[in-house]
# Entry
Amino acid sequence: METDTRTRILDAAEQLFVRHGLDATTLRMITAEAQANLAGVNYHFGSKEALIEAVFRRRLTGLNEQRIAALTAFEEAAGGAPLKPRQIVEAFFGVAIRMAADRNGGQTFMRLLGRSYTEPTEFVRTFLAEEYAEVIARFKAAFFKALPDVPQEEFLWRFHFMMGALSYAISGTEALRMLGPIDDADPEALYARLMSFLIGGLRAPLPDSVAKHIAKPARRPRAKRAA
Amino acid sequence: METDTRTRILDAAEQLFVRHGLDATTLRMITAEAQANLAGVNYHFGSKEALIEAVFRRRLTGLNEQRIAALTAFEEAAGGAPLKPRQIVEAFFGVAIRMAADRNGGQTFMRLLGRSYTEPTEFVRTFLAEEYAEVIARFKAAFFKALPDVPQEEFLWRFHFMMGALSYAISGTEALRMLGPIDDADPEALYARLMSFLIGGLRAPLPDSVAKHIAKPARRPRAKRAA
DNA sequence: GTCTATAGGGGGATAGAC
DNA sequence: GTCTATCCCCCTATAGAC
# Structure
C-alpha cells in the first residue's frame, strides 16, 4: 500500500461524496477517513471546491478519452461510412458501464458522476460542461451522420434521455431497491440490459408531432397508438 | 394573495431546494424568501427535516393518487384484460410529465422530485420509498400482466431506466444545455418525445443473455423492433 | 509536507417576550 | 402565531511551529 497522502485524500473524498453528497461531506470526514491532517486538503488542493474538481478530473478525463478512442476505432474501421447507431451507443455508454463495473475505484466514481449532471451546485455543472465539451461534439457529429432521418433536436432529447437511463443504471442502486429485490451484481447483464433499452429508445418511431413535419407523408392511417 | 405563513414557507422552500439543493438551502434563506420569521419553520414544522418531508408530501401524495386513478380507469375500461403497455406507461409517466408542465408550482416540484430518487441523504430515500410503495405495487402488477413474456427482473430494470429518463426529462434543463441549444418550452412536445422513447426502450428486444433463457425458441427472425 | 491551534463565519434549534 | 436574542455546534480556511 503506502499510497501518498494526496491520493488517500482523493480516494476518501470520492467514497464520501458518493455516500453523503458533496455538500454534506466535510473536510474533517475526508481527512479522518484518509488518515491525513485536516489542513492537508488545503495544502494539496487549495480548497474544498478545488478538491471536488480534482476528484472528478482524475477519472473523467480518462473516461472521455476512452470514449473518443472507441469512437475513432469504429470510424476508422468504417472508412468514412456512417456508423451503426449501436456502435456509437456502445462507444459512449458501453465505456461508461465498463468503468462502472471496475471495482478498482471506477465503480465508486461512476456512481458519483451519475448523480452529478443534475447536481444543483452551479460550479459542478459548468465544470462538467467544460470537461464534456469535446466528447459531446464528437458524438453528436457521429450520431447526426448515422441518423440523418432524425431531426437533430429530436435526437438531442433522446440522447438526454439516454443519459438519464445511464445515470440510473449506474447510481441508482439504492433507488432500485424501491422496486423490489433486484440483483445488481452482474455487470455483464447490466451492460446488455442497458444497451438494448437504449437502442430501443433511440430507434423508436418518432412521435407524431415530430414525424408530421418530415417530408415523408407516407400513409399513416390514423396514428393509432402503437404498442 | 394573502397566503398564510405555512404555505409561503413551503413555496419558498420548494423553490430554494430546487435551486440550491436540500443541504445547501438554509432555514434563513427560506424564511427570508417567505417573508417569515426564522423561528417560524420550527414552529410550523418542527425541524428542517420535517419541512423537507412536508414539501414532498404536499404534492407527491396527489401525484401518486392521480397515477393510481389513471391506471384504475384504464383497467376498468379493459374489464380484466391486460392493458397495453403504452397505457400503463401513460398512467405512470404521463401524469408526471403533465404535472411537470404545470407552471403553478408543479413544475418546480417535479424538478426537485426528479433529482431526489438518487438523493444521497438517507432519510429522503426511505421517505420516498414509503410514499411510493403503493403506486409501485399497483404498476408492477399491471406491467407483469401486460408483459408476460418479459422476465420480471428484466422488466424492473427497464422500469428503473425509464425512471432515469423521466428524471432527466424533467429536471435536466440545465444538463440539457450541455448538449447544445434546445428548446424545452413545449410540454406537449416533451410528452410525446419521452413517451415514444420510453415505449421504444420498454419494448426493445430482450438482450441475448436473457432471451436465451426463455422457453420460447420460436423462430424470431431478428426481433424486429416493436413499434 | 505535516502538524496544532484558532480565526471567523454560518448553521439549526429554542427560550421567552409580545 | 410571530418575534428577538442567543445558545451551541460545526464548518472552511489559514497562520505559524515543527
Q: What stands out?
A: Chain B has a mean pLDDT of 91.
